[in-house]
Every structure is written in structure tokens, then in C-alpha cells.
């Protein structure tokens, strides 16, 4: 399949900060279904170009953004606060609804790791999200007890430093991060940890400010999600066990589907079997957002419908 697609640089405000994104649009006319794409912690939007391009080829628009504190967006550098990330997702939905090529009734969300946490939490407060796709989502604490104690001590020291100096405690965790198998494919893993932007982020790991990436209780709330949810997880995920995906799937009470993908680690959209991730994501978005469109009038994924005409 080789369909003409287009990209638009998008900027919008979220909690007073400028958020940078790129909107991928399918070729042709009409109103398209769309996904908000949320990256994970210590990540950036450029890692999702292949996924978003594939979605556009399948007739699905996507808005991938740098979340608060990451990439080209504003916010405290490399901090993660779920309330900020939820606000980013809601602001992205505002932006999509205002775009002349997007069907405002056919919106969903895709999120990796902490981005998966954020879209699950956003679905609890924003009814405009009609479908979810999580990839290696963090929904429960991922650190061991000693690791959690260590993070707590460093965060406490960081608060003291901030009180005295007005600056975060920043520690380089490049060596420690490099020991983690982020992707199952060794070549992808090597490319990831040799990326200068990745090295820069892990060279400035903040305390406090990083806790929400690993200390999460989203699993206790997901039973309230009502929209169809696709749960994807790498079978060889060494960052967050596939058992997390099974627990998430079991806790969900909405229409749902689970796929544990062999050959993938924590970066399933870049890993050995990324084609499977992209195929499942597009299939879920098309089928579930089509259902949403049929309830309010067809969009470009079915037949062309003019905005504002029932």
C-alpha cells in the first residue's frame, strides 16, 4: 500500500505550556478518524513516525506530541506528572476536533508505557475518547521494594535541594539504563541507547519528578473505563512483565482484546515485530472508531460526511 499522506506541524497550549506535535493525515478528502499518540517517559514524538505513517496509509489520522517536559514541548525537563499528561491529551483532542479534516466524533488514543497510563486515565475523565490502544502500559508499581526505597530517598534529597537552591537533583543514569533491555531486538536496543537524545535524557534524571513513571495505581481504576480497549504487550518485555498486561486485561470491564506479542520487548512499536503492533493498532482503530462514527453519522472511514451535517 502506497497512499499519499501529509504531515502538519501542530502547536497548542496545555496548562500554560506550549506543546509541540505532528499531525499525520491520510490522502484524499473527507473527515478522518484520528488517534492521539502519547509516548512513554524519557521518550519523544519522532520515535512514532513509522507508526503514524502506517496509520495514515490505512486511513487513520494521528496527532503525536511531545508530552509535558519532553522533546520540544514546555514543562519541567523530563518530569512526569500524570495530571499534566492527561491535560496534554485533552488539549490534543481539542486540537483534533477543531481541524477541518478530522471527524470530531471519531477520536481515540494510543499510548506506550507511561503514555499508556496517561491515556487510560484520560479515558476516565474525557468522554471524547472512543477507543484505546495501550502498548506495554504501566498500570502498577514496576520497581522492587529496595528500588522503591532508593527512589524515595533520592526524591527526599531532591526536595531538600530544591528547597535550598531552587534546582532539581539531577543524576546521570546512563550506565544503569544501558543495562536494561528496552527492545528485544539487540540492534534496536543498541540504536535506542546510542541515540544522543536518549543519552541526554538519562544524563539528567530528575529527583523528584520521575516517580509517576514507576509508582502507579491505575490498575485500581480501569474497571470504570467503558470504551473498547486493545491491550498490547511484548512477550519479552524486561521493563514491565507481560503479567501486567494480563492483569490490566482482567481488570477491564469494557469491550477488550489482549495480544502478547512474541519477539517484542518494551518498545514494541520499534522492535522486531513492530509490524504486528501497527497492524493490530490500525485494525482496532478502524473497527472501533467506525462503530463510533455509525452512531453519529459516517466519516471518511466509511463514507464522506460533511462536518455539521447530520
Radius of gyration, taken over Cα atoms and rounded to an integer in Å: 19 Å
What is the CATH third-level topology name?
Rossmann fold
Number of separate helices = 9
CA-based shape? globular
CA distance, first residue to last residue:
32 Å
The amount of helix comes to 25-40%
> Could you tell me the strand content as a percent range?
15-25%
CATH-derived architecture: 3-Layer(aba) Sandwich
Count the domains: 1
Structural class: alpha/beta
The order of strands across the largest sheet is 1-2-4-3-5-6-9-10
What does this structure look like?
- With 310 residues, the chain is α/β, with parallel strands linked by helices.
- It has one domain: Alpha/Beta hydrolase fold, catalytic domain (Rossmann fold).
- 36% of the residues lie in helices and 22% in strands.
- The strands form two sheets. The chain has an eight-stranded mixed sheet with strand order 1-2-4-3-5-6-9-10, sandwiched between helices.
- The C terminus is likely disordered.
Defining traits:
about 300 residues; alpha/beta; globular
Task: Set down the secondary structure blueprint.
Elements: E1 5-14, E2 17-26, E3 32-38, H1 49-57, E4 61-65, H2 82-97, E5 102-112, H3 114-125, E6 129-135, H4 145-165, E7 169-171, H5 174-178, H6 186-194, H7 196-202, E8 205-207, E9 229-234, H8 242-251, E10 256-261, H9 274-296
Parallel strand pairs: 3-4, 3-5, 5-6, 6-9, 9-10
Antiparallel strand pairs: 1-2, 2-4, 7-8
Helix pairs in contact: 2-3
